TrEMBL record:
It comes from the Eukaryota. Belongs to the type II topoisomerase GyrA/ParC subunit family. Its EC number is 5.6.2.2. Residues 116-588 form the Topo IIA-type catalytic domain. Keywords: DNA-binding, Isomerase, Topoisomerase. It is an enzyme of class 5 (isomerase). Pfam families: DNA_gyraseA_C, DNA_topoisoIV. InterPro entries: GyrA/parC_rep (IPR006691), Gyrase/topoIV_suA_C (IPR035516), Topo_IIA-like_dom_sf (IPR013760), Topo_IIA_A/C_ab (IPR013758), Topo_IIA_A_a_sf (IPR013757), Topo_IIA_dom_A (IPR002205), Type_II_DNA_Topoisomerases (IPR050220). It catalyses: ATP-dependent breakage, passage and rejoining of double-stranded DNA. The active site is at Y204 (o-(5'-phospho-dna)-tyrosine intermediate). SMART domains: TOP4c (SM00434). It comes from Timspurckia oligopyrenoides. PROSITE patterns: TOPO_IIA. This is DNA topoisomerase (ATP-hydrolyzing).
C-alpha cells in the first residue's frame, strides 16, 4: 500500500512496509529514511506539515495486523509487518477525552517513574539506577574513586535515558552528608555545602559506593532476591527494586512533587529504626507508643532541635504532621576592642536551611531595623564545625533578641511531613510508622526467602555434581578406560551416562575434571564437600519452612547493618512546642503610663524623668494638652505588666503595657478608644492599676458612692 502523506511528520512521499517497535512504528520513506511514528498520533492543523488538511478533533489511526489487537506485552525488539489506512481515513475523537487520557498517562509516568520513592528500598528510579550502575562499574568502598562523569555516562547510556544534569544532581545529593542521614555515595571533591554552594562539574568530582550501600542494598542481587526488568532499549536488565537490608526510606527521607500528590519524608536515626524493626519482628502486635519510644522522632543530618512531640505523633499515626525545628544556640561573652559584649552563637541549623541565606536574612532584618539590638554579625564556621556569631549591643537582653530572630528569620522553621510512597504493588499510598515497618519486614522476609530458595537450588546442583565426582572416584579405572576407548566427547559422555547411571551434567563435569582431582586426597575432599553441602541444604530447608528461623536471619542481618552505619542521635527533641510568646519578644523595662481627663493615653520610659533639686521647675510629663484637659491618672509599671483600667461603671479593661504606644515626653498620646474599642458613651476611667502577676489570693475591691 502506498501512502501519499503522513499526518504525524508531514509529506514524506511513498512509504514501504513498516515495522512496530513497542508503541512506535518505524517507517521507510525514500526521502526521509527510517523514522518513528507513534501508533496514536494527534492530527495536525491545516497546512502545518504538508498538504493534508485535517480537523483538530481528528486523529490518525494506524492499521492493525491480522491479530486486530496490539500486544503491549511484546518485547520492544519484536518486529511486526504493518500496513496503513489511507491518510484520508480518520477517526473522530473528543478533545476532552483525548486530553484526559493523555494527561493520565503522563501523571502515572511521573508518579511511578520519577517523583515517588518505593517503600521497599526507599529509592526513586534515578537513585536506584545510579547505585546499580556504580555496582556494575565495581566502584566498591575499598576500591579507587572514579570520575562522576563516567558514572553519569554509564547510567545515561544503559539505564536512565534522561538529562545528564538530572542524573548528576541526584548523585550529588546521595553524597551530601548534610542532605542524607546516611550518605549512600562516598564523594571525593566539591559536592556542595550547607551554604548552598553548588557542586563542582562532574568532570572534577569522583565517587564510589559506601560500605553501607554495598552491604545493605547491593549485596544480594546475584541471588534472585528481586525481580529484574528490561532496560529502556532491551539491551540488559535492571532491578525493579533493590534488596534493601535497612529501612532506607525513613533513614534518609525523600521529597518529590508528582502530579496531584507530593511526598516529604524526614530522615531518621538508623540505630533507632533497626531497634524498632527488631521489636516489631519479635512482637507484631507491639503498641504504637512503644514504637514511638524507640523512634522518638526524625533525626536531621544538620542537627538542631525539634520543638514538641505533637507533630511527630501525628506524622507517625496519620502519615501527615507539622514538625517545628529550631537552630541550636547558646550565649557567650565576646571581647571586641577590649569591650566585653554578649553574643548569640549558632552552632546547628534546621534541616534544609542554607547558612549563607540565613546570615543574609539576619543582616537584612538588622539593616531594615525590624530586629534591633545587634551590633555585628559574622560567620566563623570552619572545618571544626558551624559557628555564626551574632554580637549584641551594650545592655541588650540576649533572650529578647534571640526570640525576635527565631520569629522573623530562618533560625526556626517547620518541616511539613507527608509520608507518601509506592507500596509493594506499585501504588501510591500514605504510610504510618507501623505500616512502614510492616511493609519493610514483609519485604525482608520475601527477599531472604527468595535468596534461600536460590541458594538451595544452587546447592542441590553442586551436590548433584559432587555425587558424580564421587562415583568417578570409586570407579576411576573404569572411567579412564571408557574415556580412552571412546571415539569422541559425545560417545564418552553417553558411555558414562549408560554405564554409571550418571546425568548429562554429571558426565560433562567428569569430562571437564582436571587429572589432579583423581588423587586419593581429592577423593577425601569430595566426600567432605558432599557432607558440607548436605548440611547447608538442611539449613536452607529449615529457613524455608520455619518462620522463626527466617526471622532470626533477618534480625542477625539488621544487627550487622546497625554496627556498620549507626551513629548517635544528632537532633534533640524538646518537650516545648516551640511557640514564641509575644511577651518574650519584649524587654521588661520600667515605664510610666499616663491617662488624661479627655481620654488620651501614652507610655513613657522612666528614664525620661530624673530627680530634681528642691525649688526647681521640674519637667512636664505632657505638654500638648488641650486647654481644658489635664493628667488624671498616673501609674508606674513594667512593660510586661497588665494595666487594669477600671471604669466608673465598675468594669475592668485589661491591656498589656507594651501595647500602649511609647511616645515622647511632650507628646499628647493616642485616644484610649483605639486600645479599648466598644466602650459605652459616658463611661470614664476611674482608676489605673498595674498587675505583674495574677494570683488566686489577690482581689480587687470596688467602692461606690
Amino acid at each position: 500500500m502506498e501512502l501519499k502523506s503522513c499526518a504525524a511528520f508531514g509529506y514524506c512521499g511513498g512509504l514501504g512496509i513498516s515495522f512496530k517497535f513497542g508503541n512506535y512504528v518505524a517507517v521507510n520513506g525514500y526521502r526521509n529514511g527510517y523514522f518513528l511514528i507513534p501508533q496514536r498520533t494527534l492530527a495536525v492543523q491545516r497546512n502545518l506539515y504538508g498538504k493534508l488538511s485535517v480537523s483538530k478533533r481528528n486523529r490518525v489511526r494506524m492499521a492493525k495486523t491480522s491479530s486486530e489487537e496490539d500486544d503491549l506485552s511484546e518485547s520492544d525488539s519484536s518486529s511486526v509487518a504493518t500496513t496503513f489506512f489511507d491518510a484520508g481515513e480518520m477517526e473522530k475523537s473528543e478533545l476532552q477525552s483525548e486530553m484526559s487520557r493523555s494527561y493520565l498517562e503522563y501523571a502515572m509516568s511521573v508518579i511511578l517513574g520519577r517523583a515517588l520513592p518505593d517503600i521497599r528500598d526507599g529509592l526513586k528510579p534515578v537513585h536506584r539506577r545510579i547505585l546499580f550502575g556504580m555496582d556494575e562499574l565495581n566502584l566498591n568502598p575499598k576500591g579507587p574513586f572514579h570520575k562522576c562523569a563516567r558514572v553519569v555516562g554509564h547510567v545515561l547510556g544503559r539505564l536512565h535515558p534522561h538529562g545528564d544534569t538530572a542524573v548528576y544532581d541526584a548523585l550529588v545529593r546521595l553524597a551530601q552528608p548534610f542532605s542524607s542521614a546516611a550518605p549512600l555515595i562516598d564523594g571525593h571533591g566539591n559536592f556542595g555545602s550547607v551554604d548552598g554552594d553548588p557542586a563542582a562539574a562532574m568532570r572534577y568530582t569522583e565517587c564510589r559506593l559506601t560500605p553501607l550501600t554495598k552491604q545493605a542494598l547491593l549485596s544480594d542481587l546475584e541471588f534472585n532476591t528481586v525481580d529484574m526488568i528490561a532496560n529502556f532499549d532491551n539491551s540488559q536488565t535492571e532491578p525493579l527494586v533493590l534488596p534493601s537490608k535497612a529501612p532506607i526510606l525513613l533513614l534518609n527521607g525523600a521529597s518529590g512533587i508528582a502530579v496531584g500528590m507530593a511526598t516529604n519524608v524526614p530522615p531518621h536515626n538508623l540505630g533507632e529504626l533497626i531497634r524498632a524493626t527488631i521489636a516489631m519482628i519479635k512482637n507484631p502486635e507491639i503498641a504504637d507508643l512503644e514504637l514511638m519510644e524507640m523512634v522518638p522522632g526524625p533525626d536531621f543530618p544538620t542537627g538542631g532541635s525539634i520543638m514538641g512531640v505533637t507533630g511527630i505523633r501525628e506524622m507517625y499515626t496519620t502519615g501527615r504532621g507539622s514538625i517545628p525545628m529550631r537552630a541550636k544556640t547558646h550565649f557567650e561573652k565576646v571581647k571586641v576592642k577590649k569591650i566585653e559584649r554578649s553574643a548569640i552563637i549558632v552552632t546547628e541549623l534546621p534541616f534544609q536551611t542554607q547558612k549563607a541565606a540565613l546570615v543574609a536574612r539576619i543582616a537584612e532584618l538588622v539593616n531594615s531595623k525590624v530586629v534591633e539590638g545587634i551590633a555585628d554579625l559574622r560567620d566563623e564556621s570552619d572545618r571544626s564545625g558551624m559557628r555564626i556569631v551574632i554580637e549584641l549591643k551594650r545592655d541588650e537582653t540576649p533572650e529578647v533578641v534571640l526570640n525576635n530572630l527565631l520569629k522573623k528569620s530562618g533560625l526556626q522553621s517547620t518541616f511539613s511531613a507527608n509520608l507518601l510512597a509506592l507500596d509493594a504493588k506499585r501504588k501510591p499510598d500514605r504510610f504510618t510508622l507501623r505500616s512502614y515497618l510492616k511493609s519493610f519486614i514483609d519485604f525482608r522476609r520475601e527477599t531472604v526467602y527468595r535468596r534461600s530458595k536460590f541458594q538451595k537450588e544452587k546447592a542441590e546442583q553442586s551436590l548433584h555434581l559432587a555425587t558424580g565426582y564421587a562415583i568417578a572416584q570409586r570407579n576411576i579405572s573404569a572411567v579412564v578406560q571408557l574415556i580412552r576407548d571412546s571415539d569422541d566427547t559425545a560417545s564418552a559422555r553417553s558411555g558414562l551416562c549408560g554405564k554409571f547411571d550418571l546425568s548429562y551434567d554429571q558426565a560433562e563435569a567428569i569430562l571437564a575434571m582436571p587429572l589432579r582431582r583423581l588423587t586419593s586426597m581429592e577423593a577425601k575432599k569430595i566426600d567432605d564437600e558432599i557432607g558440607t553441602i548436605q548440611e547447608h541444604i538442611k539449613r536452607l530447608e529449615t529457613l524455608l519452612t520455619v518462620p522463626d528461623e527466617l526471622n532470626a536471619v533477618i534480625i542477625q542481618e539488621l544487627v550487622a547493618v546497625e554496627k556498620l552505619g549507626a551513629v548517635p542521635r544528632r537532633t534533640e527533641i524538646l518537650v516545648d512546642d516551640g511557640g514564641i510568646d509575644e511577651m518574650s519578644l519584649v524587654e521588661n523595662n520600667e515605664s510610666v503610663v499616663l491617662i488624661t481627663q479627655q481620654g488620651f493615653i501614652k507610655r513613657l520610659p522612666v528614664e525620661e524623668f530624673s530627680t530634681q533639686r528642691r525649688n526647681s521647675m521640674g519637667k512636664a510629663g505632657i505638654s500638648r494638652l488641650k486647654e481644658d484637659d489635664v493628667v488624671e491618672h498616673f501609674a508606674y509599671c513594667r512593660d510586661r505588666d497588665c494595666i487594669l483600667i477600671l471604669s466608673n461603671a465598675g468594669i475592668a479593661y485589661g491591656i498589656r503595657a507594651y501595647k500602649i504606644a511609647q511616645v515622647s515626653r511632650t507628646a499628647r498620646g493616642i485616644p484610649l478608644s483605639r486600645l479599648i474599642p466598644g466602650v459605652p458613651p459616658g463611661e470614664s476611667v476611674a482608676s489605673l492599676l498595674p498587675v505583674s502577676e495574677f494570683r488566686d489570693d489577690e482581689f480587687i475591691m470596688l467602692l461606690t458612692q
